[in-house]
Write a structure and sequence with these properties.
374 residues, alpha/beta, Rossmann fold, seven-stranded mixed β-sheet, 32% helix, 25% strand, elongated, binds S-adenosylmethionine
């Protein structure tokens, strides 16, 4: 049975493993970058279609030691690449090295490309071409301390990019991060959510897609595994049929997004419409520091600015102090989940954190923090 690997951002592996288990997938080892799961190809289709937290599903196809490029070539040659490619298709190879005797990543990628080219030339007299930007199939080779792993990508594009985000703002949150944070918050899908600094609205749009049971894979056109000749097309058709049949109007609760910048709200509204969830989210211009609760009972999920530009210092100190003041004044009893990119600002809230999860948000070491407002 194939053993697949689902990748995600650091800090979200456990949430991803939980999510995959909820689809009845047989999850194995969980590490910092994701988790493995074992199952038939239908499970690979399931994970690609349903996972909100994975960024990619790959299939490790070879593990071997190598100290020289010739050894590497001989090992890679053992695999039959005609399983994934035809001469008319395109492919790419991404190589990464960490503390290996072979030191040049470009040579590493070139050697794997040579194996594939030689294999096809020998068998068909023609070979598939390389397309670094939009290939039909991607291969990854990763070497660490002279141990190599070669994987084939089954997704084809980042699963995080649902495609509803035509409009964007400064520092938007990636879609899979938003979905992972919602899962970590333990949101019960009954409590209304409020994002007082919603930017392009990613947290709320992902929440609305959960409410409607819309699987993120339905936004994508074609997955790489659909090119593989040994994966029957009916298998994907069956899975997508099940996923589409599950879509529903869902619980009748509202989600509320606010931002002080009108342009950001315009982006959020357009994105929510594109995702088909515009009717579930109310976006309004407001200042978080004076905002009053739009509903009696709800939960705040938000990603306030944490600023990296010069001149932000004074503005951010004020923002965090004033926002905390407003939370204590108007949101007593509420649960607040906030993604913080810098503890320098969070300290100005003067709130006691109940929980803190380290999360990598686009390369920034963040914390997803839970506060209970007294
Ligand atoms: C880091 S961005 C949020 C990004 C968002 N999670 C997304 O996916 O696009 C922070 C947002 O807070 C907004 N903001 C800053 N100060 C605010 C305030 N006092 N009231 C309301 N919104 C504010 C900014 O306009 C910006 O859109």
């Amino acid at each position: 049975m194939p053993v697949f690997y689902a990748s995600t951002s650091r800090g979200l592996s456990e949430a991803l493993a939980d999510e995959l288990k909820s689809f009845d997938l047989k999850v194995g080892k969980v590490d910092k970058q994701g988790c493995s799961f074992e199952g038939p190809w239908a499970d690979c289709a399931k994970a690609n279609l349903r996972s909100r937290i994975a960024t990619r599903i790959s299939l490790p196809i070879l593990d071997f030691p190598a100290y020289k490029v010739e050894e590497l070539y001989d090992n890679v040659k053992k695999h039959d690449f005609t399983r994934y490619l035809t001469p008319k298709m395109t492919f790419s190879i991404k190589a990464k090295l960490n503390d290996c005797a072979i030191t040049d990543q470009r040579i590493l990628a070139m050697k794997v490309k040579d194996v594939i080219a030689d294999q096809f030339n020998d068998k068909f007299g023609v070979r598939p071409s390389v397309d670094k930007k939009l290939p039909n199939v991607r291969f990854f080779i990763f070497g660490s301390k002279n141990e190599y792993r070669l994987s084939v990508d089954t997704s084809g594009h980042s699963l995080s990019q649902r495609g509803y985000r035509g409009e964007t703002v400064e520092a938007p949150m990636r879609e899979h991060v938003a979905a992972g944070l919602l899962r970590l918050s333990g949101w019960d899908m009954k409590t209304p959510l409020v994002d007082p600094m919603c930017g392009s609205g990613t947290l709320l749009i992902e929440a609305a897609l959960m409410l409607k049971s819309v699987s993120p894979g339905t936004f994508h056109k074609k997955f790489s595994f659909q090119h593989f000749e040994h994966v029957p097309p009916e298998l994907f058709d069956d899975e997508i049929e099940k996923v589409l049949a599950e879509e529903a109007e869902g619980p009748d609760i509202k989600l509320y997004g606010f931002d002080k910048v009108g342009l950001n709200l315009k982006a959020a509204t357009a994105n929510a419409e594109e995702a088909g969830v515009g009717h579930l989210i109310e976006f309004k211009k407001a200042n978080a520091v004076t905002l009053e609760p739009p509903v009696a009972d709800g939960m705040i999920v938000t990603n306030p600015p944490y600023g990296v530009r010069l001149g932000d210092e004074f503005f951010l100190e004020e923002l965090y102090k004033d926002w905390a003041h407003n939370l204590k004044k108007n949101f007593s009893g509420w649960h607040v989940w906030m993604l913080s990119g810098d503890p320098k600002w969070t300290q100005f809230l003067r709130l006691k954190a109940e929980k803190r999860y380290p999360i990598d948000n686009g390369g920034v070491d963040c914390r997803w923090i839970h506060y209970r407002i007294k």
